[in-house]
Specification:
The complex is a heterodimer of chains A (about 400) and B (about 375). With about 400 residues, chain A is an all-alpha fold. Chain A contains 23 helices and two strands. Helices cover about 60% and strands about 0% of the residues of chain B. The chains are: A mainly alpha (about 400), B mainly alpha (about 375).
């Protein structure tokens, strides 16, 4: 219902815009607005007419490249789809269809056919369509990659319910359709396992890290340098981390260390430059992130940590991993040497500087007194006295 | 009167050059180091950007560190020469007198004493600074080398030493910089501008105030006797090899530490190491069906050999199970639909298909003229299965 209201308010706006443009009489603009209208064919063919055949069109059509284009619409799924629930008609998207017989299809492959029909998506979903154009998928599409997804590869327009009605599992499985190896790897990770087994909605699904339509290229330096904040977005949130007993110091302790300092500086001074200093996923993994306590891969096990270190520090030996504080803030029990060195300077610095300050102030005091306090006649100023001695 | 302006030489040109080298390397170290310590401050970010990025800042820091280190090595050799060959007194060594001088100055400053203490060639403020310098030199040198060579360090020492060295290096830096700003700047620049490290000498008046004891010694003492040449040569025989070995060892160590380890790979760690990115699931959203061979239409004009294909292509979309007519099976098409017999074997003129399927009819689906002719011949020949 909420959606409908939104749509109708959009209509109102469009109507106002339309009227305004008519008023100023800009003919080409008015044509453009008319083309954007959601109802291109006022007396359009009803869905019933289409479904009378397509509900039962069990035979797919063979396309020139040998692929099968399926023509059957599952009426139950379609009735549950966001499009049918909003009374979108078939011909609003399938614009070439005006009656029967249908015009000859020119598409040579399913991909090409989808590209043709998906040109309609932008009319109602302009924002998403434009975001997608700049995404990694959009770039691949524009390069003519046959495997790159168009809108309908992810959002089956005849089945897709409201996006909010899907949980993280459904969303992620959409990605898994094409990225099955990564999905399977993810499904075995600490995040994926919680999501799939327990339907946990705290853990990130694919789109929480990769975005939906804007979906940036993960190979860029911008992605790498800012990925730290992507992870810490959840990992410094006490509401989420509290449930699992995880530390929220992870970002601060990372930024305080050599890797994190460097990455943060890069992020601020030269985001377009790639830094090879480790970000979260270099040590923890990406789709295969496991609990740090996992006996085989978990980083809390020193041998596993050494393996992780050696990915970038090939010559590292047994003691090397503990030169990284493992996101701990040093205290008496964890990393006591670091703690006591810090404590030592906590006292040394004020004592040394304080002592110096006392001596300096005493000297300033004497000099100010010389300048502003007139000496008693009996006493002579030390400085002038000295001078007169040597006259 | 003229006495007051008399100059007393304090530092030779070589010592003054040492000081300039120290200023340059120390300030460079301080700037390039503190921006790393306080890397998130906008001032640091601005300086890092100005200097050309953090990687370059680190290289500059290390060049300055090597300069600072070598300056120290040179200084130690000079000290060894002065103390061993020339047998000068160790005027930088702190003693009880410095404590009493410090207290004396303090009490005098507060006005409880009329006379300030008469201080030696190096007074307590200078000794304090010099000792802090040596302490800092050793500590910063050791921790810096550890941070430069963490892999070598952890081969010998526990890993925790590296972060501890980092903490010490950073905090000691803060202490050193603040001490310079407070102690050094006050004593030689703010209190009054002391030119001796640049011009080499102090005036008599400045000598009285800061080195009264030395002044008295200079004025009362006999000029130093010339050193016996044989004694000098004997001492040099010891000094020369020892100082050369020391210099070679120290410079060699520096070269070793600067080049020993390749701490990390220089490339970006590989990200997609294990899994293929594009691996579509099977069955996909659009499962591919087993391809059926395209019938050779000319081969035979029977239902199974091509006529079925024509019907399914042109009529099958609608005339599935419903629509009163199915074109799926031979028996279905013979049975006909709601409106009657679609195909009457041998009688194409009575078969409904010839009316509905003709090009230009009102029925939604139509054959081409060629297909219609094939269907007509098929019906004429008995509409064989």
């Amino acid at each position: 219902m909420k959606r409908k209201n939104l749509l109708s308010s959009k209509h109102t706006l469009r109507f106002l815009l339309f009227s305004f443009i008519l008023l100023i009489g800009v003919a080409f603009s008015s044509l453009k607005v008319a083309a954007q209208s959601d109802n291109p064919q006022p007396e359009s063919t009803s869905n019933v007419a289409c479904l009378s055949c397509h509900a039962e069109a069990t035979n797919p059509v063979s396309l020139p490249n040998g692929e099968q284009l399926f023509l059957q619409i599952n009426v139950t799924d379609f009735a549950n789809s966001v499009h049918d629930r909003n009374e979108v008609t078939c011909v609003q998207c399938h614009k070439d269809i005006t009656g029967f017989p249908h015009p000859i299809k020119t598409a040579k492959s399913v991909h090409e056919y989808q590209l043709q029909v998906d040109a309609s998506c932008v009319e109602c979903h302009e924002e998403q369509a434009n975001l997608s154009k700049d995404s990694l998928h959009g770039i691949l599409l524009s390069q003519g990659d046959q495997n790159a997804p168009t809108c309908s590869n992810c959002h089956d327009p005849h089945r897709q319910p409201y996006i909010e009605e899907w949980g993280k599992v459904e969303h992620s499985q959409v990605c898994g359709n094409c990225h099955s190896e990564i999905f399977d790897e993810y499904a075995a990770s600490v995040h994926g396992e919680a999501m799939i087994k327990d339907n946990n909605q705290d853990v990130p699904g694919c789109i929480d890290c990769h975005g939906v339509h804007e979906m940036p290229d993960v190979g860029t330096s911008e992605f790498r340098n800012s990925s730290v904040y992507m992870c810490s977005n959840c990992h410094i949130n006490p509401d989420i981390m509290g449930k699992y007993g995880l530390s929220t110091d992870v970002l601060d302790t990372y930024v305080a260390d050599f890797h994190g300092t460097t990455v943060t500086i890069f992020e601020k001074t030269e985001p377009g430059q790639m830094t090879n200093k480790a970000v979260c996923y270099d040590c923890h993994g990406i789709h295969n992130i496991l609990s740090v306590n996992d006996p085989n891969k978990g980083l809390a096990v020193k041998e596993n940590m050494l393996v992780a270190c050696q990915a970038c520090h090939p010559d590292a030996t047994t003691n090397f991993p503990s030169s990284w504080l493992s996101h701990y803030v040093p205290n008496k029990d964890k990393f006591p040497i670091v703690y006591y060195v810090t404590e030592f300077y906590k006292y040394l610095i004020p004592v040394v500087l304080g002592g110096m300050a006392i001596f300096v102030s005493s000297d300033i005091f004497r000099r100010l007194k010389l300048k502003f306090v007139k000496p008693k006649p009996a006493e002579t100023e030390p400085e002038t006295e000295e001078v007169s001695n040597h006259d | 009167m003229t006495d007051q302006n008399k100059k007393y030489l304090r530092f030779t040109i070589a010592r003054r050059l040492e000081h300039i080298l120290l200023i340059l390397s120390f300030s460079t170290l301080a700037v390039t180091g503190l921006v790393q310590k306080f890397s998130l401050s906008p001032i640091s970010i601005a300086i890092i950007s100005f200097l050309g990025g953090i990687e370059l800042v680190r290289i500059i820091h290390r060049i300055a560190a090597v300069t600072f280190f070598l300056e120290g090595v040179y200084h130690f050799i000079v000290m060894f020469y002065l103390l061993y060959v020339k047998r000068k007194s160790a005027t930088m060594m702190p003693g009880i007198k410095d404590i009493t001088d410090a207290l004396g100055s303090f009490v005098y400053n507060l006005g409880f004493k009329k006379e300030p203490p008469k201080m030696p060639r190096y007074n307590y403020t200078e000794k304090m600074e010099y000792l802090a310098m040596i302490w800092g030199y050793v500590l910063m040198g050791l921790t810096g080398i550890m941070l430069w060579n963490p892999i070598l360090t952890t081969k010998i020492l526990p890993g925790e030493i590296v972060p501890a060295a980092k903490v010490a290096h950073g905090l000691e830096a803060i202490l050193a910089v603040l001490a310079i700003l407070l102690w050094h700047f006050y004593n030689v620049h703010i209190k009054h501008w002391n030119w001796s490290m640049f011009k080499g000498s102090l005036t008599r008046h400045e000598m009285q105030e800061e080195h009264g004891l030395e002044l008295e010694q200079i004025e009362s003492a006999e000029p130093e006797p010339e050193m016996d040449l044989k004694v000098y040569q004997k001492r040099m025989k010891f000094f020369t090899p020892v100082s050369i070995v020391f210099a070679v060892v120290m410079v060699g160590a520096m070269i070793f530490f600067a080049n020993y380890e390749e701490t990390a790979i220089t490339t970006v760690p590989r990200v997609y190491a294990e899994k293929e990115v594009y691996v579509p699931r099977t069955p996909t959203l659009f499962p591919t069906q087993a391809a059926t061979p395209t019938p050779d239409l000319a081969l035979a004009n029977t239902w199974d050999n091509g006529i079925n294909f024509v019907f399914q292509q042109k009529c099958g979309l609608c005339h599935g199970e419903a629509g009163g007519l199915s074109v799926k099976q031979y028996s279905d098409i013979i049975q006909g639909g709601k409106d009657g017999m679609v195909v009457i074997p041998g009688k194409p003129e009575d078969s409904l298909v010839m009316k509905f399927g003709a090009p230009g009819s009102e029925h939604p689906g139509q054959f081409t003229a060629e297909e219609l002719e094939r269907v007509r011949i098929w019906i004429k020949n008995g509409a064989r299965k």
